[in-house]
Every structure is written in structure tokens, then in C-alpha cells.
Amino acid sequence: MNQAVEPSTLNPLLNQTFSQRHRRPLLISVSLAALLGLGVFAGYWWNLGRFLEETDDAYVRADWVAISPRIAGYVAQVLVEDNQPVKAGDVLVRIEERDFTERLNSAQAQLQQVQAAANAQQATLQTLDARMSEQQQRIAQVQAALRSAEAEARRAQLDYARYRELVAQHVATAQRLETVSASQAQAQAAVAVARAQVARQQARLQVLQASRQQAQAQIIEHQARVGEAQANLALARNALSDTEIRAPFDGVVGQRKVRRQQYVMPGLPLLAVVPVEQAYVIANYKETQLQRMLPGQSVEIEVDSFSGQHWHGQVESIAPGSGAVFALLPPDNATGNFTKVVQRFPVKIRLVPEGDETSRILPGMSVIATVDTRPGVRQEHVHGG
């Protein structure tokens, strides 16, 4: 006689049989999937992951400049607003130029005055040169007269000697000898007069030469004054030009503190110009991450302000020392108990231009920088959005 099996007793047995039948394939599938995932991850890490050096200690920087005046004065105009883009050479601030214009006019008048004095002294020198030339002609003339008188004196001396012998021989009369003797005396006197004239004219030439030397010294002095006046004029022009404060490069205006009619002095910060287009990233990597890092390697940049977007750059340079080396109070590990701390080195990363998207990255933003240190990789990527 057959015994009936109750359903409550049959169902657990069937469920247990079904579970045992499918458990092994499920476990095999899960294991294979885990092994496959692990293999994919291991392949990714071996081929790429182990070469990626990442840090979130990175920030956008720019070499901005604080604009300050070179002269003191009252502000006449402020020609820019906060956060306004400017081009290199644009006028940012104008200082009242009235006083500087008058100083320029005064410097120009002073230069004209000293130049006129220098020209007058130059004319005096030219006059002295002409008088010296004329005096040299006079000296030549009196020297010729001296030579003529000396020749006449020699002739008279010879006549006196000849007539003295003739009188001794009673060939000529004593009266004739007296006449010849008087002529000799006159010739010697004429020689003395001619020599005196030569000495006089030479003395005049020496006076003119001394005057010329004095005139040359005065010309040098006037030239120095002209140079000084020209320098003062150049300074006045520079000061007048400095009343217009211009942008040193393309950028965006920030920290605008200057106001109209404000009295400003040299060195007082008026505003800042930030070269947004020339922004770069400073990433502080641990010293253990620098083993394979070299300039030119590709960098992927994530900006905290723009979630999901990526930018690219290149490693430009690595700092010659860690941040602790350049600190105001560098650590001295030779004193006290020593605790080893992994140091960080600033790495400068140049952003690859990517159209208008690059200008959205502003100095001060926090970023995550990932450097691809694979050997031979020196490529520039395109922005992927």
C-alpha cells in the first residue's frame, strides 16, 4: 500500500536539491568575474596606474603684479573698474599733470639758457682763434722786419770795417768814417727795435693762448651744464609721462583701491593686474613621487570648481629645494628628537592652451594634478570636457 507524501515535507527537499545544483556554477561565475576584474586592474596598474603620480596639494598661480605710481600727486582719473580685462599699455590711472607740465617747461627754459651761454662761449673761442691767427701773421711780419734790420746791421758793420781800413790808409776821409759809424749805430738800433716788436707780438700771442685755454675750460663747464639741463629735462619728461599709469601686460584688474582725488605716493599699491591667460599650476608632490618625474611629461588637471571637466598641461620645472628649505624658519633636525617627515617639492605645471576654456581657470583655485611618468611620454592632450 502506497503512503502519501505531504507537500510540507517534499518542498524543502526540492529546494535544497535546486540550490545545490546551481550554487557551484554561480560560485564559479563570481570567481571568474572577480579574477577577470583583478586581472584588468592588474593590467591597468602595470601598464599605466603605477606611472601616474597624483596630488591634491596643488593650486593655480599667476605672476600678478601690484601697480603703484612712480611719482606723488593727486589722482585725476581712474579709467578701469574691478575685474575689468585690460591690454598691455592701456592707461589705468591718471595723476594730475599740471605741476609736472610746468616743471617740464622750466627744464626746457633752463636748457635753452645754458645752450645759449655755451654757444656764446663757443663764439668767443672762435673769435680768439681768429685773433691768434692774426697775431701769428703779425709775428711773422715783425720777424721779417727783424731779419731785414739784422741784414742792414751786418751791411753797416762791414761798411764800418772797410772804411776804417781806408781811413787808416788815408784813402777815405774821417768824415766818411763818422757817417758810416752813425749808419751802423742806426742799424743796430733798428735791430733792437725789431727784436722788441717780435717779443711784444709773441707776448700778445701768449695772452691770446691763455685766453683761449680759459675759454675752452668755460666751454667744458657750459657743456656740463647743458648735460645737467638735458638730464633734468629728461627727468621732467619722465615724470610727466609717469602721470599715466599703464598696464604692464594683458590681464584682469583686481584689488582696485585707488579713487579719484586720492593723494598717492611712490610704492603705494593702487590695484593689481593678474595675467589670467598666463596662469600655471604649482603642485606639491612628495619626495617619494619624484623618482620618474621629468620636465615635459603630460599632466591631467582636475579643477575643484568645475566638477567632471579635465584640463591638460606639461611639467615645466621642479623646484631646487623642498618647501621647508625656503621657509621663513627652516627646520633644524640636528636639535631635539628627530621625526622623519616626508618632504614636498613644488612642481610647476604649464597649462596647455585649450581655447576659451583655459581662461576660466583662475589663480587660487584648488586642483588635482596627475602626472604621467611613463618613459617616452611627452605629449600634449586635447581638452576632453
Automatic annotation (TrEMBL):
SUPFAM superfamilies in UniProt: HlyD-like secretion proteins
Keyword Coiled coil: yes
Domain CusB-like beta-barrel stretches: 281-321
Multidrug resistance protein MdtA-like barrel-sandwich hybrid domain segment(s): 65-273
Highest taxon, organism lineage: Bacteria
Membrane-spanning segments: 26-46
Keyword annotations from UniProtKB, A to Z: Coiled coil, Membrane, Transmembrane, Transmembrane helix
Residue ranges the record marks as coiled coil: 97-166, 198-232
InterPro entries documented for this protein: Beta-barrel_RND_2, MdtA-like_BSH, MFP
Family: Belongs to the membrane fusion protein (MFP) (TC 8.A.1) family.
PANTHER family hit by this protein: MEMBRANE FUSION SUBUNIT OF EMRAB-TOLC MULTIDRUG EFFLUX PUMP, MULTIDRUG RESISTANCE EFFLUX PUMP
Descriptive protein name: HlyD family efflux transporter periplasmic adaptor subunit
Originating species: Pseudomonas spelaei
Lineage of source species: Bacteria, Pseudomonadati, Pseudomonadota, Gammaproteobacteria, Pseudomonadales
